[in-house]
Amino acid sequence: MSEVDVLIVGAGPAGLMLALWMARLGVKTRIVDKRTDKIFSGQADGFQVRTLEILDSFGIGERVWKEANHLLEVSFWNPDENGQIRRDGRAPDTIPNISRFTESVMHQGRMEAFFLDAIKASTSPKHPPIQVERCIMPTSLDIREDLVDDENAYPVEVTLRYLSEDEATPTSRLSNLQDGLFRSNLTASDTESIIEKTNGSCKEEKVKARYVVGCDGAHSWVRKSLGPEFAMVGESTDAIWGVLDIIPITDFPDIRNRCVVHSAESGTVMVIPRENRLVRLYIQLKEVSTEGGRFDRSQITPELIFESAQKILRPYSLRYHYIDWWTAYQIGQRSGNHFSKLDRVFLAGDAVHTHSPKAGQGMNVSMQDTYNLGWKLGLVCKGILRPEVLSTYELERKQIAKDLIAFDQKFSKMFSGRPAKDILDETGVSMNELQNAFKLSHLFTSAVGISYQPSVLTHEQQINGHTGHNDVLSPETVNRCRVGMRFASYKAVNQSDARPWEMQHQMPSDGRFRVVVFGGDISDPAQLSKVNALGDWVSKKLLPRYPRIPLSPASSPHTGLLRFTTEQDPSVIDVLLVHAAKREDIEPLRDLHEAYHPFDEKLGWDYGKVFVDGESYHEGHGRAYEGYGIDKKEGAVVIVRPDGYIGLKTRVDEADWAQIDRWFEGVVKPRAPE
Amino acid sequence: MSEVDVLIVGAGPAGLMLALWMARLGVKTRIVDKRTDKIFSGQADGFQVRTLEILDSFGIGERVWKEANHLLEVSFWNPDENGQIRRDGRAPDTIPNISRFTESVMHQGRMEAFFLDAIKASTSPKHPPIQVERCIMPTSLDIREDLVDDENAYPVEVTLRYLSEDEATPTSRLSNLQDGLFRSNLTASDTESIIEKTNGSCKEEKVKARYVVGCDGAHSWVRKSLGPEFAMVGESTDAIWGVLDIIPITDFPDIRNRCVVHSAESGTVMVIPRENRLVRLYIQLKEVSTEGGRFDRSQITPELIFESAQKILRPYSLRYHYIDWWTAYQIGQRSGNHFSKLDRVFLAGDAVHTHSPKAGQGMNVSMQDTYNLGWKLGLVCKGILRPEVLSTYELERKQIAKDLIAFDQKFSKMFSGRPAKDILDETGVSMNELQNAFKLSHLFTSAVGISYQPSVLTHEQQINGHTGHNDVLSPETVNRCRVGMRFASYKAVNQSDARPWEMQHQMPSDGRFRVVVFGGDISDPAQLSKVNALGDWVSKKLLPRYPRIPLSPASSPHTGLLRFTTEQDPSVIDVLLVHAAKREDIEPLRDLHEAYHPFDEKLGWDYGKVFVDGESYHEGHGRAYEGYGIDKKEGAVVIVRPDGYIGLKTRVDEADWAQIDRWFEGVVKPRAPE
């Protein structure tokens, strides 16, 4: 019986995101998947801007950004007074200025390949390699409840079964047809039948794990093994949708735009232009009915789906020579009431929430689940974080799942509905309403507007008389520093070499907490002395109390100045200063406390931690203080969690240092005596 | 005896750039190098902005851009009235707005690694792989003059000798010292002694080549084999300079800026901050004299060089723990009078020009030599280009070498000179003069201001009453479309999907010519009809006359919309339209000739060729017409060569089509009858 810190079941985007965290943090991890095959076409394809920011924090965002098709414009097509479709309006697909990225599409298989590359690149002699073990499925899972409170125990016992390649290949995939029906919710899970079929005939292995995470999809075996209270709750509608990935040959003018096309009588199509000249079409199948709960799956063919699309797009012509993939699904919205059992077994991704794919949310919310869980699990395994922090996973992510289901119900309904003929047509869907819903939901669907609840990780602090959460969220203010929300990215200029940096590039996903000191106008001696007093306190009182974290060598993908210090004095707390004085007025070695340019006997001073909110020579002015909503005179102090969310916002003044102290005390274990 | 189209001698940056072209174009090529070892530290490190543009056209610019240290600011330190150094001024290191890149530094070994990766990635089943063959040197080279005019012949016969690893390792490298003296001009060539030592004892091979290119450095064996008229011409000064790559520990405030520090009495240092906390120091060695022509090489040690730097930087402290590399050199400026023999053997890089390294020119001019030569050689080998075009290599690049030597003489002299005490001190160098020279030379050193002479490839055309070359070059106008100069990059918005693109990203180095139609305001029906008439002529008359070019699959690194057409109808001429109407006013399939959205039976229309000079949703307005200096009403037609230089600029009007015709007739062979 072998031991492992973390056992991940399922190697889709959620499982691989988690494995990447573990690789970066150097945690002993196994990841198994019952399927033999990687995904080569189809499946999920949407990347929301927050997801791209997260991928970028691991250094793989730019690979996606380069290969993906960027969705810049959405157009809305509706019937005119004669019932013929016409373009009713155009809008940006992503609200300008909420992120440096825009919504993009690329097929899931490439994303998985990028994860595998990044996991491999994170391997170092100090860290055990992590490789996906395919054709392996769990067949039993037991939690030793007497051991769950023992930090050093391995309380989860799992039996793993080694399948042959045949057994691990989904039967519907044995044909040559590139369809995704076998992963669709129209098809029952084959897990039970595989288990039954292979009973007694396969090699098995017992594994003891400190933590197990089920990233094993909508039919999650891990979820089922946890008992009936983990069942998904929710409903299905009767609507059946088909999906085609084709290279279209069409005179429809907006085929390279994201479009919502509502026909008068033939239903709705959503057009998603993809990479490599592909276009994905989501088409409502009016011909297939599920009323009564049962229908004939063989009714659904790519021809049927395609003909529906042709009807909707009339009078424009539509044909194709090349089809890449197709599937169909029934709209169902469900989520689990529990995301964790005893904070030892966790569920993530489709295993705890399913919904319709048209808003491009699935892969994103799934990866963001394990992005939220990963650093917590990893730092607990390394003895750095207090295990109580693990309970924030369910707290933070269950709400997102609920919000997602609520959004999807509203969105799908409007999407599937018949367009209203006029203002008196109450059973039809008003197209203005759809366009507005599309815009209003964008802060949620892009995930930049997500805000985590108050907890040990997100202290609500009064600052200037109001908390961040009292602000009304709007595209104009969504990037402000608010507790519970992501630390947005603005450009600031390095004090010592004049290079402008995206602030998020100074915060790679390496497991470290960041204390960002917005120093304000430090050309004012009084303000400078406050900032230096804080630096003195941080370096003499705060940092010495907390542990160091040995980092994987690939963990700082964006810092051209490789941070040697993280190898030598890898404090779990990184200190950055962003000031608002003129760059020429500050000589850092002379003016600033050494906390802001730590000295190393072999490497000299670190010039990579002080930034100016000012004009750069070639890339303009980042206007970071304005964007973050920070007062230029007084500044502020912000604690950023390892996942880039803001844990605390407070003032530079000595009176507020205790809040910083208290925050870290609740989260990070004190350094072990040496 | 084996046959090869192109034999490259020397696998430094010049040789590898050439090999990359050959790999992309699918030309049978061998590249040999006498050294066993790659470069792991030191050597050249400067990347000028034009070089970055070129590397980006092969899809490897972003790797350099990410790893390199960007030089943003230069500061000038001079003695004050008491003889103590003080910062006299700061300036941007790269003039703003001349390119999307800025000068950057990264060591040569990484560049070579990126080339090797890109060459490997260009391999396809259709193309023979190209691999560097190390420990191989030529020992004889003969040109069969009777065969040089036969396009199908292999007139160059070369003997290659296979060395053992010991023989291929430079003797001074057998110590553990990471120094570059063995490559310095202070050390004599070891080529002759290796040849003599290994006579008779090594395996040899005879190769017949259509073309041979000597990229084998300052001691070029290929150059020597061509005879005495190929000898380098020029002078050496007496000044000896030392170079150190260290991680400095210093309180000198500008150690992360590029600096020129002139001390009152102790000489000059240039500071070049590098990647990974390294800093390169160029230091004038006053203690070592070469007067009389001879000096003792053992005098030069890293300690001596370092102590000189310490003196110059006083009163600031300077020490180090880690030294990466060091070398020394004597300033010598020489170039060859001939860059080619019979257009069958060519010389490039250090083999035909050497100079001082302080302006960061060497690696750049060398790579730009073979970037200029590569497409010509490759397309001639493929039977696409007229062989006469090969003579433009010497025409275009010899002038650059001469200009470089002239610049370097002036720059080095000012740099080595004693700073003037006051305005009456005529033997001293005025510091204002130095700063001005630094700025004025930037259009040359950045290479964006380079202009190739009139030839079959660069037709001087009268447009609006004056030729491009009559303009005075300035940073404000250097990016205008001018015959002989590079096609600069501005952003324009894709008509069909609203995505903004750098125009250079639509022009990857894939061997194709581009006809860029600046259509002007095509919402004016008269202008639209001119543009469509041109499209009709291009697709019916121009394109059918010229051949197709099968491209390597990796040849379009930046086009998210993979251009399937290049596989199916890979015309050697690519047509792009950039118009100045409002994007919403144009429906491309309805309004524009099919030349601008070619139709393919299997893939439908190509949406990747029409661009708008307009506002994008997220990245502002590119103001391309303004930047290119094109009239928004009338537009213009520009022919861009495969290396991104402008071959012709003319009007959209029918009257000027004959100029386009004539240009291609002089350069490209007509399509072979099918």
Automatic annotation (TrEMBL), chains A, B:
GO terms for molecular function: FAD binding; oxidoreductase activity, acting on paired donors, with incorporation or reduction of molecular oxygen, NAD(P)H as one donor, and incorporation of one atom of oxygen. Residues 450-670 form the Phenol hydroxylase-like C-terminal dimerisation domain. PANTHER family: 2-MONOOXYGENASE, PUTATIVE (AFU_ORTHOLOGUE AFUA_1G13660)-RELATED, TRK SYSTEM POTASSIUM UPTAKE PROTEIN. The keyword Methyltransferase does not apply. This is FAD binding domain-containing protein. Keywords: FAD, Flavoprotein, Oxidoreductase. InterPro entries: FAD-bd, FAD/NAD-bd_sf, Phe_hydrox_C_dim_dom, PHOX_C_sf, RIFMO-like, Thioredoxin-like_sf. SUPFAM superfamilies: FAD-linked reductases, C-terminal domain (SSF54373), FAD/NAD(P)-binding domain (SSF51905), Thioredoxin-like (SSF52833). Belongs to the PheA/TfdB FAD monooxygenase family. It comes from Stachybotrys elegans. It holds the Pfam family Phe_hydrox_dim. The keyword Lipoprotein does not apply. Residues 3-407 form the FAD-binding domain.
